[in-house]
Design goal:
InterPro entries: FLZ1/2/3 (IPR044533), Zf-FLZ_dom (IPR007650)
Keywords: Metal-binding, Zinc, Zinc-finger
Family: Belongs to the FLZ family.
Organism: Glycine soja (Wild soybean)
Protein name: FLZ-type domain-containing protein
Structural class: mainly alpha
Helix content: 25-40%
Largest sheet: 2 strands, antiparallel
Shape: rod-shaped
Radius of gyration: 31 Å
Number of helices: 2
Length: 115
């Protein structure tokens, strides 16, 4: 009969680091841009945030240095969404047109006499 090791006890598991506590960093080429902490710089203009100034948030976790930067990002996002919706509507219309069009069929033309 096969035996399996028992799961580690709570006291022994504390010595094993949790996968969530590990941090991985990319140490690639010198031109690799490292993202700052999300509240250190404006998302749009990259201006430093802090020094007891207001931070304007958008969509949960996107910080901006001013109402103007935030509004510009809102307009950019709305334009992208509108473009996406238009392109998806075009795709739906095109697929409907392709489904409704009759496939190439050979049709005989001529005169039929019925008595």
């Amino acid at each position: 009969m096969a035996t399996f090791p028992s799961p580690p006890s709570p006291s022994s598991s504390s010595s094993i680091p949790s996968p969530r506590s590990r941090m991985f960093y990319y140490a690639g080429s010198e031109d690799h841009y490292e993202e700052p902490h999300f509240l250190q710089a404006c998302f749009l203009c990259r201006k430093p945030l802090g020094q007891n100034r207001d931070i304007f948030m958008y969509r949960g976790n996107t910080p901006f240095c001013s109402k103007e930067c935030r509004q510009e990002q809102i307009e950019i996002d709305e334009a992208k969404e509108k473009s996406w919706k238009l392109s998806s509507k075009r795709g739906v219309r095109q697929s409907e047109t392709n489904q409704n069009s009759t496939p190439n069929k050979a049709v005989r033309t001529g005169t039929v006499a019925v008595a």
